[in-house]
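Dear colleague,

Thank you for sharing your sequence with our group. We've completed the structure prediction you requested, and as agreed, I am returning the results in plain text so they can be pasted directly into your records. Please verify that the sequence below matches your submission; if there's any discrepancy, let me know and we will rerun it promptly.
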Amino acid sequence: MAIPVDRTRIAPATWNDVLGAHAELAAWGLHPVVFGGWARELHGAWRYEGHADVDMLVTAKDLSVFDEFIASSGRAEFRPKRHHHKRAYLRDRVLVELIQVRRTPAGLATDFYGRLHRAWIEPLSCPLQTPCGTVLPVITAENIQAYERDHESVERAFFEAYPHLRAEAREWLGCERLPYDDRKLFPQ
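Please find the predicted structure tokens below.
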């Protein structure tokens, strides 16, 4: 298989990983917003079934701030997730993805894979209490619903940016649909 991912290096994520990643990013002056499966779980849209990673939206002018954070934190960058709109790193073997949100004249947006300019609804986040009792900024339910409606467009942008991976995804995943929560990519 040509997709260069060593899945043995990745551990399942827990609430402690979400809290730890959020605290580290906030201490560095970033303002992370919980996204992905963890946000869906807090909104009651997804029953906990285990999570393969921690997704954070971070408003940033460019990706250099992510690169600086990863380099200064001593964490290992996870290169297979290095894209036009995000960076990822391993935090104690847990995959943490940082997805850039830019403020544009029209509002907040992410340029997925350099191919899809996708706007976010403002406000981007709302405070929600985690099962641990900590309150974190979490993407709003409206943004989750809008992102899920647009997920096929995000997938198309991925395959436009990486057409050579279409056949590999079909072989590896059995389809050309990218798993929304990465559980199929990184089994636990």
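Summary note from our side: Strands lie at 32-35, 53-59, 76-77, 86-91, 94-104, 107-112, 116-119, 125-129, 135-139.

Kind regards,
the structure core
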